[in-house]
Design brief:
Organism (chains A, B): Cyprinus carpio (Common carp)
Shape of chain A: globular
Structural class of chain A: alpha/beta
Order of helices and strands of chain A: HHEHHHEHEHEHEHEHHEEHHEEHHEEEH
Distance between the termini of chain A: 19 Å
Number of helices of chain A: 16
Oligomer: homodimer
Number of domains of chain A: 2
GO molecular function, one term (chains A, B): L-alanine:2-oxoglutarate aminotransferase activity
Enzyme class (chains A, B): transferase
EC number (chains A, B): 2.6.1.2
CATH topology of the largest domain in chain A: Aspartate Aminotransferase, domain 2
Number of strands of chain A: 13
Pfam family, one (chains A, B): Aminotran_1_2
Chain lengths: 452, 452
């Protein structure tokens, strides 16, 4: 196809990474369809991002009513809003200086919301105590934690262990902070599980070139949709204790657990129950946000980190790092309060606070069962002809597959090469929407036939 | 007083900077008043921050109505909202994926809002063109620009010229990024003007110990309330051109100009009219935000930077730095749109969009005339007895003055030592609210009498 020549040129261009090409091409197709160009499909369907609202999921009414009333308190006089919405908005506005979401807050967040988050954590972990003093509400808290851990001036680079596959933005943040990336592979054949043996191997290799100080975990996983068992978490914590690694636990998908036999255990809960030599020493930062989970409020930028077992002097340094930045967006903070303390059965707004789940398994491609998270990361088994064809165009086969899938069906998914994968294996990542599956199936069947 | 012993102890404590002590003491007094303790005043009045809403100024109705409707689009059916509010909300929601402010946007902001900002800049500068491609909407854009300019790995530290006095958060950001701070003094006697001779002297000194690459300007000034003349800006630009310095122009107070004979000129406008050898070469980043100016929406975190004359490769690197961060908060982006394109005469909402100005001059302390910005930075002339008294307590005299002012009158202002001042000069910084002046006057008179 003629568009591919143009695209290959773009990919080769220094200024364009693969990420731009796919997204730009998707935007271009959308524009062409809007201008009346006819294709086999009526719209580009974006399966590429962890953005529920972009995917057409509606925001939760209770959340939006409370936030609208906080922004425009004249709505508190409006009879159409439920009583619990008004009460919550009034209670949140009392915590704002001047009663306005337009005022600065404490740089680590509004005290009452930190308190609310710590209560949520305690409930989640079945009573394990959480102190508001260890909660930092901040969009971008992962970057701040990296700043804390990474010594850019040391002659030996600071190393951080990260899973393969993983999502690109964390890797970019590591690179930007000057860290050495130490990859450890998740085991696809066993449902993308995290094997301590893999960690040990990776650490051993990493120690030859840098100074590994931290272990980054994404549980439930992105892009793999796996979830760690309690036993697996215990093993990882024991490993971190032995090797004196700081655990960065990205737990933003903690409320997205689908499989019947599966339960989310937080690193903090498991750690707290491991005996005092470990439970009081292993340092942990756990991240959560309103972007993922049932709310899907990515645009509001509300997130927090909870710090566990930090040396008081280090915690004080962390506090300073967090406080050199301005306060987090107040509307996002309030969304966090609503996530941590949603309406309960009996409250007027309880019925509007329903959860979201639009996932299924994809036939025709080998795919580990989806247990948690937003995404699937199925493996594509390309025939040699397809590999050759991609090589000729100087592109990754899965990237080329994604470009064709987009062109032919309007489905925008991401190639596995962006997340990391074992040599000679190929994947795609997408969030599953029911009406996308048929398009993908038809394309995939045709594609495999063409290159067989 | 007994509280002072305790406070002195706190200030000496490593873990507490002066900033915390004043704020904590203010919070403590507020709490005591709420619990019924009687003082000479009924409340602590916070004059310490550039936060209009905290100071009791009401948010602009049009702004809040549009944002509430964007968050909760059911309000678009509400008859109580004006037509232009609904139209604006609908038009903004059309730019959001899935029609939701909960979706991610482009990492440098929504394209249409960048376009709106560039039109605003063109109008402001009397027709000087501005391209959306040079606009990056981001909360924290100053830090990202510092990342771009500062080479942490060079053996010679990167230097940035900054004014004295200046506000602490920019200095903290510089320190955090590992830059060398090169202070240049503003000339208080001449209304806090910026003298190129001072810049030259500072640069000369700086070159002995670091590699100066950028010049940071705050115009209109914080904390000084000065504003640069067109001629002064030309001189500074010529200096930057000669010395090959990147200009970081913090122009967030551009809409706060009070004096009759005074007009705001942007660095970009003046630069564009200086002849092509200068106008096409001097690199400039200009910052603006919804936090300051007439909106005072600090909590929404909406700001932008416009880049001028950057080398294409450097601009591409900047684009990458901006894109490694998530998108800016969407509600803040929308507020930026409303700032850049407010209701016009004839629109239903025009009357609700009124400006704010609650400033006056303070008698009894020597103070340069306030021309622009939020703050005054009057000079306190302490008698030797007061200096001695402070020295004995190992505190800066202006810090001690602030603590006493807070304790006795409930006025929370900041000491000049936090912003930088010439040796043996002392200042306080505050935003002037009418009802604060009498309290300050009474305290100041008593204080000076006691130490004379």
């Amino acid at each position: 196809m003629s568009f591919l020549k143009e695209i290959s040129q773009l990919v080769k261009n220094n200024f364009l990474s693969g990420i731009d090409v796919l997204s730009r091409h998707a935007a271009q197709i959308s524009a062409e369809i809007q201008q009346g160009e006819r294709r086999n499909y009526n719209e580009v369907l974006d399966l590429s991002s962890g953005d529920l609202h972009r995917g057409g999921i509606k925001p939760i009414t209770f959340v939006r009513q409370v936030l609208a009333a906080c922004l425009y308190p004249a709505l508190l006089e409006d009879d159409s809003l439920p009583l619990d919405v008004k009460q919550r908005a009034e209670s949140l506005l009392r915590e704002c200086d001047g009663g306005s979401v337009g005022s600065y807050t404490d740089s680590s967040g509004i005290a009452k919301i930190k308190h609310c988050v710590s209560q949520y954590i305690t409930r989640r972990d079945g009573g394990v105590p959480s102190s508001p003093d260890n909660i930092f509400i901040k969009s971008g808290s992962q970057t701040i934690m990296l700043k804390l851990l990474i010594r850019s001036k040391d002659s030996c680079q600071t190393g951080v262990l990260i899973p393969v596959p993983t999502y690109a933005s964390f890797t970019l943040a590591l690179e930007e902070q000057g860290a050495a990336i130490i990859p450890y592979h998740l085991c696809e054949e066993q449902g993308w599980t995290l094997q301590v043996e893999e960690l040990r191997k990776a650490l051993h290799t990493g120690r030859k070139t840098c100074n590994p100080v931290a272990l980054y975990i994404c549980n439930p996983g992105n892009p793999t949709g796996h979830i760690q068992s309690r036993k697996s978490i215990e093993e990882v914590i024991r490993f971190a204790a032995e090797e004196r690694l700081f655990i960065l636990a990205d737990e933003v998908y903690q409320s997205c657990v689908y499989a019947d036999d599966t339960e989310f255990y937080s690193y903090k809960k498991v750690l707290s129950e491991m005996g005092s030599t470990i439970s009081s020493t292993v340092e942990l930062a756990s991240f959560n946000s309103v972007s993922k989970g049932f709310m899907g409020e990515c645009g509001l930028r509300g997130g927090y980190v909870e710090l566990v077992n930090l040396d008081p002097a280090v915690k004080e340094y962390a506090r300073r790092l967090f406080s050199t930045r301005s306060c987090p967006p107040v509307v996002g903070q309030m969304a966090l309060d609503l996530m941590a303390n949603p309406p309960r059965p009996g409250d007027p707004s309880f019925p509007t606070f329903s959860e979201v789940s639009v996932f299924a398994e994809l036939p025709g491609i080998s795919c580990q069962p989806l247990k948690a998270g937003f995404f699937v990361f199925p493996c594509l088994h390309f025939p040699p002809k397809a590999i050759k064809w991609a090589k000729k165009r100087q592109m990754e086969p899965d990237m080329l597959y994604c470009l064709h899938l987009l062109e032919e069906t309007g489905l925008h998914v991401r190639p596995g090469c962006e997340y990391g994968q074992r040599k000679d294996s190929h994947h795609i990542r997408f969030n599953i929407m029911e009406d996308a599956l048929q398009r993908l199936k038809t394309f995939h069947t045709r594609f495999m036939k063409e290159f067989s």
